Amino acid sequence: MPVHQLADLTWNDASTLSADAVCLLPIGALEAHGPHLPLQTDVIIAEAMARNAAGRIAGGGRTVLILPTLAYTPAPFAESFAGTLSIHPDHVVGQIVDIARALTAVGCSRLMLINAHFDPTHLSALSEAEDICRQEGLLQVIFPNVTRKPWASRLGAEFASGACHAGRYEGSIVLAARPDLVHEETMRSLEPNHLSLSDAVREGKQTFMEVGGTQAYFGFPAEATAAEGEMLIATLGRIVEESLDMARPSP
Known about the structure:
five-stranded parallel beta sheet, alpha/beta, single chain, 44% helix
């Protein structure tokens, strides 16, 4: 099989993988996602994104290694809500750099950060880790930041507007990937929250409460559907595949 879950392998199995394997690191968070979605929403999205991307990349004849998900990350915007576990950004930077060092030491050449958590403190930590890996001359680290061009416009109007947290975009993906964890009756009853987190960050706001997300959601959760979620997962998978091709070193 060209797609492998690292944690499921023995060390003997791992030793036979080619140095050209593409390593995927799903990255999420444990944070409040409204009264209708689980704390692990970002983890679910990152893992669905990684699985879809892995199939696409492997379909091109490349071996793919999916690493265990990094689920503890900075989430200061949601810190005031029960269940949110936010850690210092330096710990995330350190973990990613150390993972990159370890993969480099065993001969791997590419690590992709499959991220579904968009707290600005967290995104800065990922970019810092990517920079450190480049400065140290480690394996190639590829971070397709879907909040930026050219990717964001492909994920729907809600996503592009910035009014997107536990709304239509995330709710649709969780409905597709883990419908058993969605409180659907509650979700269908929620009023839209048009406030843009992107605009709020530019204005210097630092928490969901400051922005006006008193229930820890933004966007249009009642409009979420599993069918749209399947399409979004496929789009995310294509984005990962395309970013890998764009970042491929010249021969």
